[in-house]
């Protein structure tokens, strides 16, 4: 596979928007480049989110479960959203079963730590929060598309 190089240089004369060269430009940026960049960012977010839960912050370990939620919920949503992005970008790639199994097992390990960190909350509430953190990103991605398909608009 050949890598296309471009000699296009950033416009340094513009002091109004010095980083405008780095914005997405469909005439310059190929779909492969964009997909690659998004995959890297999503994988980094997933790794950071997973690691943050695996090595739970010491400052939060002694807090009650409700205070821990201020860390756990956004962290869990970032992991789930990154899984959604990776799934959407790799949906036509080979090894789909293996990729989906890796999401499942990584999510299962994450869920065990999630539940373990919230032992002082009622189990039912913990499971509801975990379930919402898992399905909310998928719903936000899927529901608008389903509505568009059902009503035939857009």
Architecture blueprint of SSEs:
Layout: H1 31-54, H2 58-61, H3 65-89, H4 96-117, H5 123-151
> What order do the helices and strands follow?
HHHHH
Q: Could you tell me how far the N terminus lies from the C terminus, measured between alpha carbons in angstroms?
A: 36 Å
* CA-based gyration radius: 20 Å
Percentage of residues in strands: under 5%
Structural class from helices and strands?
A: mainly alpha
Global outline: globular
Count all strands and give the number: 0
Amount of helix: 55-70%
pLDDT < 50 stretches: none
The major beta sheet can be summarized as: none
Helical run tally: 5
Question: Averaging pLDDT over every residue, what do you get?
Answer: 84
Detailed description of the structure:
The protein is mostly helical and about 150 residues long. The chain has five helices and no strands.
């Amino acid at each position: 596979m050949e890598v296309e190089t471009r000699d296009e240089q950033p416009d340094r004369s513009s002091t109004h928007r010095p980083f405008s060269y780095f914005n997405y430009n469909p005439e310059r940026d190929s779909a492969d480049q964009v997909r690659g960049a998004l995959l890297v960012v999503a994988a980094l977010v997933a790794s950071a989110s997973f690691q943050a839960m695996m090595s739970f912050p010491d400052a939060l370990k002694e807090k009650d479960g409700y205070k821990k939620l201020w860390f756990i919920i956004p962290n869990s949503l970032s992991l789930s959203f990154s899984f959604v992005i990776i799934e959407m970008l790799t949906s036509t790639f080979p090894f789909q079963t293996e990729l989906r199994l890796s999401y499942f097992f990584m999510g299962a390990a994450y869920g065990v730590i999630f539940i373990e960190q919230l032992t002082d909350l009622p189990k039912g509430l913990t499971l509801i929060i975990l379930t919402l953190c898992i399905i909310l990103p998928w719903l936000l991605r899927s529901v608008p598309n389903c509505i568009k398909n059902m009503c035939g608009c857009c």
